[in-house]
Design brief:
- With about 200 residues, the protein is α+β, with helices and mostly antiparallel strands.
- The chain is built from seven helices and eleven strands.
- The protein has two domains: about 100 residues, Jelly Rolls (Sandwich); about 70 residues, Orthogonal Bundle (Arc Repressor Mutant, subunit A), CATH 1.10.10.
- The strands form three sheets. Strands 1-8-3-6 form a four-stranded antiparallel β-sheet. Strands 2-7-4-5 form a four-stranded antiparallel β-sheet.
- InterPro entries: cNMP-bd_dom, cNMP-bd_dom_sf, Env_Response_Regulators, HTH_CRP, RmlC-like_jellyroll, WH_DNA-bd_sf.
- This is Crp/Fnr family transcriptional regulator.
Length: about 200
C-alpha cells in the first residue's frame, strides 16, 4: 500500500517472523504500523472454548494494525504469521508525519479502512443467520469482489480458513461445500474451490 521508499524515508525498519510467530497480541497497546513485504499474516481472536475466529488475512503489500494505532486503543485481535513473513515496522509518530506529508497515501488509507468497515458490517449481518450456505456464499462473493475477479474465482483458502472466517465448524463447511458442489453452485478441482 505505502511505497517502500516512502516507508524507509520515514524510518521504517524490517522484521522477519517465522510461522506462528505473533506480531502483536490482543489487548496490547498499538505503537506501530506494519506492512507486509512478503508472506502472510492472519489476524484472529479465540473464543472462550478456544475456537479460532479469523478477522482477516493479509499478504504482500498490505498494511495492518492501523485502526488501533490511529485510534490510540489496544489491539482488538492477535496477528500471527502463517509462514515466514517479512514486514515493515513504522512508529506511530513517523506514521503521523508520513500521512501529514502524503495526502494521497492518507486518502488511500481512509479508503482501505472504509472497505474493512464494510466487510465487518457484512460479517456481523451474516453471523446473525444460522444458514451456513449463506455465510459461505457471502464470504466467497466478498473475496471475489476484493480480488477484482469477474469470472470464475479460485478460492485460495482451506476449509478450516473458511470455517474460521465465517464462524462455522470445519465439518459444517465441508458438508456445505460438498452440497453446493452437488447443486452446481461451485466446483471443486484438485481440492480447490472454484466459485462463480
Amino acid at each position: 500500500m505505502i511505497p517502500p521508499a516512502i516507508l524507509e524515508k520515514f524510518g521504517a525498519t524490517r522484521k522477519i517472523l517465522v510461522k506462528t510467530e505473533v506480531l502483536f497480541e490482543e489487548g496490547t497497546d498499538a505503537h506501530f504500523y506494519y506492512q507486509i513485504i512478503n508472506g502472510e499474516i492472519k489476524v484472529l481472536n479465540w473464543s472462550e472454548e478456544g475456537k479460532e475466529f479469523i478477522q482477516g488475512i493479509f499478504s504482500d503489500g498490505q498494511g495492518l494494525g492501523e485502526p488501533p494505532l490511529l485510534g490510540r486503543f489496544p489491539y482488538p485481535a492477535t496477528a500471527m504469521a502463517t509462514m515466514t513473513t517479512e514486514v515493515y515496522k513504522l512508529s506511530y509518530q513517523a506514521m503521523i508525519a508520513l500521512l501529514q506529508d502524503n495526502f494521497d497515501i492518507h486518502l488511500k488509507l481512509t479508503h482501505i479502512l472504509s472497505n474493512r468497515l464494510q466487510y465487518k458490517a457484512m460479517i456481523m449481518k451474516d453471523m446473525s443467520t444460522q444458514d451456513a450456505e449463506h455465510r459461505i456464499v457471502s464470504m466467497l462473493s466478498y473475496l471475489k469482489k476484493k480480488e477484482g475477479i469477474k469470472g470464475v474465482f479460485e478460492v485460495n483458502l482451506t476449509r478450516q480458513n473458511l470455517a474460521d472466517l465465517t464462524g462455522l465448524r470445519v465439518e459444517t463447511v465441508i458438508r456445505t461445500i460438498k452440497l453446493m458442489q452437488e447443486q452446481k453452485k461451485l466446483k471443486i478441482k484438485g481440492r480447490k474451490i472454484w466459485f462463480e
